[in-house]
Specification:
This protein is an alpha+beta fold and 667 residues long. It has 5 domains: 112 residues, Rossmann fold, CATH 3.40.50.140; 162 residues, Topoisomerase I, domain 2; 111 residues, Topoisomerase I, domain 3, CATH 2.70.20.10; 116 residues, Orthogonal Bundle (Topoisomerase I, domain 4), CATH 1.10.290.10; 87 residues. The chain is 39% helix and 21% strand. The strands form 6 sheets. Strands 2-3-4-1-7-8 form a 6-stranded mixed beta sheet, sandwiched between helices. A 6-stranded antiparallel barrel has the order 9-10-13-12-11-14. The protein has a 4-stranded antiparallel beta sheet with strand order 17-18-19-20.
């Protein structure tokens, strides 16, 4: 029997349908789906069916020092026991095993983990594919290769390094702060530099002092109208601007007129980072976009969505893909326009790899066949694919200088002459600014002059899409893990909102780490380890050497942490006490804080107790996030509640919420 192992059940089912040409028989063994045809059996895993952890003796936080975890034994533990048992049963009957998991570090490791569990000695091969389509799957199984043990070792090294760093640092910080149980404080080699990035941006925003400034705008008319702005731009002294306005006349003359065509080249093909940025721009979070993309990949609509590649391989029949898309009304007009080109030459990005191509549509889909968000992602992928073959967009850029009473005012115009690739990919198109027909030395009437007061703005917070790109630039995480790390920050109550904003807890943790162990918040060590893991995958460095290097780094970190343990503990505990302050009590002006009753329930109570008994109720469950936003009526901090598997609940001002609740009870 030929045993084929895929990464997920859905993948197993689809590959079985393709290879059997529809004659597959689905069965269950101990509740696990298997798919049989001819002399082949396909079983899907559930991602990693084993995990790694420390032996039970290391689980007692009060008896095992955090730094002891650095050299602790690491063991493998099956987490999908039913699948493991079925896999072992099937392997005993197999005379050949094929690993058909996703082709990347995680997929290779998942396949190797499964193979180890089978204890089989029969011949083993590996098939690799980037799309689950009949032609690609058939070709993959006709051309099997060997398992890439180096690639699997790189994935295994990441698992071990992340376990040790996360467990040791999290235990140290949680014990130091006395935040245990469900409220433990999480620290990690990628998570902490990422969180520091957000906290430091928030500090820049908080420290920013707005400065008022003034602009002079003149409304000019020559039959049509346009607004020109004084060439100085910002006036920091209002009097200077008013003095200039007092000297201006009611006529102006065009002193300079420049027009030029501006070529805007098409975008590069989608890799994972660019795809997630584009998805964020259409309202889908990176985690949600990746979940949808993986579903579209498994169902055979798009190619594998985890890729660094931005260059289509020569083997990809791009004209045939476009031709297939032309058969559906949704894309026919755009596909036909591209098919008229004698040569289809796509754009190229700087990153070219051989594992997977850039993300592209592999099969034409009808809008009615997909859900709303699925269609959004599918259409985004199709339109980006089209755009990479299209002509440049051509803009007319106009720059005008107007002399008014000896002062120069300027205006810019922007007009789209030829949409080019933007016709195919109409996302985030710049807004046109159409100026009336103008000529040099033309006289203009100055209809009015306005003095506009503005103020300087602080730096912007990172949006999720921008943050994914920033992580890539800093070498934090990989294409497969960046969106997951961002999701963890939300789940652990470190951030909220989009643009992303750190909570008070995040501010306290990062402040303490930067003061006493700054190296944990810097991306340098994490970037070095990422580069070393690439070296493992390429066969240049051994897994053992990289894991040992990470332990040496962590030992040096703990040298600093243990030396400053008392200071770290004091800083965390003081900061976290302040984190629970909701605002001032409306009855006595003492602090209102989150407190626990004798029965364990939580509520907002006054620190002036027992003299002041003012309280407000809180929901019984869910992680409480005290935000930086304050109620305009009561001055209390707004509160969010995060519950696992649910969207964050904006409780808002606890006092306003209580008043509304009381009203609803009476009604």
């Amino acid at each position: 029997m030929h045993l084929i192992i895929t990464e997920k059940n859905n993948t197993a089912k689809r590959i079985a349908q393709i290879l059997s040409k529809g004659s597959v028989e689905q069965k269950k063994i101990d509740g696990v789906n298997i798919y049989e045809y001819d002399d082949s059996t396909i079983v899907g895993l559930s991602g990693h069916i084993v995990t790694i952890d420390f032996p039970d003796r290391y689980n007692n936080w009060s008896e095992v020092e955090p730094h002891e975890l650095i050299e602790a034994e690491i063991i493998s533990i099956p987490v999908q026991k039913k699948i493991v048992n079925v896999l072992k049963k099937l392997a005993k009957k197999a005379d050949r095993i094929t690993i058909a998991t996703d082709y990347d570090r995680e997929g290779e490791l998942i396949g190797v983990e499964a193979l180890r569990l089978t204890l089989s000695t029969v011949p083993v091969d590996r098939v690799r594919y980037s799309a689950i389509t009949p032609s690609e799957i058939a070709n993959a199984f006709l051309n099997p290769s060997n398992i890439d043990l180096n690639l699997a070792s790189a994935g295994e090294a990441r698992q071990k390094i992340d376990l040790v760093w996360g467990a040791a640092l999290t235990r140290f910080i949680s014990l130091s702060s006395r935040r245990l149980g469900k409220n433990f404080l999480s620290v990690g080699r990628v998570q902490s530099p990422l969180l520091a990035l957000l906290v430091n941006r928030e500090k820049e925003i908080e420290a920013f002092k707005t400065t008022p400034y003034w602009e002079i705008h003149a409304l000019c008319r020559n039959g049509g109208e346009f607004t020109a702005k004084h060439e100085k731009g910002r006036f920091l002294e209002k009097g200077e601007a008013e003095s200039i306005i007092s000297r201006l006349g009611r006529e102006g003359i065009i002193s300079k007129l420049e027009q030029e065509e501006q070529i805007e080249n098409p975008p590069i093909p989608f890799n994972t980072t660019e795809f997630l940025r584009a998805s964020s721009a259409i309202g889908l979070s990176p985690a949600n976009a990746m979940r949808i993309a993986e579903g579209l990949y498994i169902d055979g609509w798009i190619s594998y969505p985890r890729t660094d590649n931005t260059v289509y391989p020569k083997s990809l029949d791009t004209r045939e893909i476009i031709r297939s898309l032309s058969k559906h009304d949704e894309f026919k007009e755009h596909a036909d326009a591209l098919l008229k080109k004698d040569v289809l030459k796509p754009t190229r990005g700087k990153k070219e790899t051989t594992d997977h191509p850039p993300i592209y549509p592999v099969t034409a889909a009808k809008k009615s066949a997909l859900g709303v968000d699925e269609w959004k992602i599918y259409e985004l992928v199709v339109r980006r694919f089209f755009a990479t073959f299209a002509d440049p967009a051509i803009w007319e850029n106009t720059k005008v200088s107007v002399d008014i009473g000896g002062e120069t005012f300027k205006a810019d115009g922007l007009r789209l002459l030829d949409a080019g690739w933007r016709w195919h990919y109409p996302y985030n198109t710049p807004k046109e600014t159409i100026l009336p027909s103008l000529r040099n030395d033309e006289q203009l009437d100055i209809v009015k002059v306005d003095l506009i007061e503005r103020e300087t703005k602080p730096p912007k917070r990172y949006g999720q899409g921008t943050l994914i790109k920033k992580m890539e630039d800093l070498g934090l995480g990989t294409k497969s893990t960046r969106h997951e790390m961002l999701s963890k920050l939300y789940a652990r109550g470190y951030v909220y909102g989009n643009p992303v904003r750190p909570t008070k807890t995040a501010m306290v943790v990062v402040d303490t780490l930067e003061r006493y162990a700054e190296i944990i918040t810097q991306p340098d060590m994490s970037r070095t380890l990422e580069e070393d893991m690439d070296g493992i995958a390429e066969g240049r460095i051994s897994e053992e050497a990289v894991v040992q290097e990470s332990k040496d780094m962590l030992n040096s970190v703990f040298g600093v942490l243990n030396e400053r343990r008392e200071h770290i503990s004091d800083s965390l505990r003081k900061g976290l006490r302040e984190e629970n302050i909701i605002g001032a009590c409306p009855e006595c002006s003492s602090d209102l804080t989150v407190r626990r009753s004798k029965r364990g329930g939580r509520f907002i109570g006054c620190t002036g107790y027992p003299d002041c008994t003012f309280t407000l109720p809180l929901p019984k469950s869910g992680r409480l996030i005290v935000t930086q936003n304050s109620c305009e009526i009561h001055g209390l901090h707004m509160v969010k509640i995060i519950s696992k598997g649910r969207r964050a609940w904006d409780l808002g001002c606890p006092y306003c919420n209580y008043i509304e609740w009381q009203k609803s009870k009476k009604e």
